[in-house]
Design goal:
This protein has 2 domains: about 35-115, no CATH class; about 115-145, no CATH class. It is built from 5 helices and no strands. The protein has helices spanning about 1-30, 45-60, 65-110, 115-125, 130-140.
Length: about 150
């Protein structure tokens, strides 16, 4: 009987602790109300969140926004920010497509001039993909030279 209690009590305590933690986690996640759009304007990082709150407070003060104006004003800004981000992403995709097509065209032209060995050396050292990989590597090391 003593041996049973010796293992049962810590096990019951551990199970109770884990169930309480899980319940608290899910309750906090599901029961807290979602903030209005104006409060979710920037959600990328704590630093950006602080910057947004400072900007938000400055805009409220400088524009002398009433409490009735705040929610529609910041909701409109949020929609505008999302549209701008979407446009920038579309532009970036179009740019990448154009650059890839241009690189492919260059590769075809070089293939008619260079030997297979020279073309391989070109691809490994100077192609767009090689330069981009080198830039990524240099950024990780804190340098910004391309060559």
């Amino acid at each position: 009987m003593i041996m049973k209690n010796r293992f049962f009590i810590p096990l019951a305590f551990l199970i109770t602790f884990l169930l309480g933690g899980a319940t608290g986690y899910f309750a906090a996640k599901n029961l807290s109300p979602a903030p209005p759009v104006s409060e979710r304007f920037v959600d990328e990082s704590p630093r950006q969140d602080r910057q947004f709150r400072a900007l938000r407070n400055r805009l409220i003060t400088e524009l002398e926004l009433t409490s009735d104006q705040e929610e529609p004003f910041f909701t409109l800004l949020e929609h505008h920010r999302r549209d701008m981000r979407r446009m920038m992403e579309n532009q970036r995709r179009e740019y990448d497509k154009a650059m890839t097509a241009h690189s492919d065209s260059l590769h075809e032209s070089l293939a008619s001039i260079l030997s297979p060995e020279q073309l391989q050396t070109w691809e490994e050292r100077y192609s767009r993909a090689a330069l981009m990989e080198r830039q990524r590597h240099q950024r990780r090391e804190g340098r910004s030279r391309n060559w």
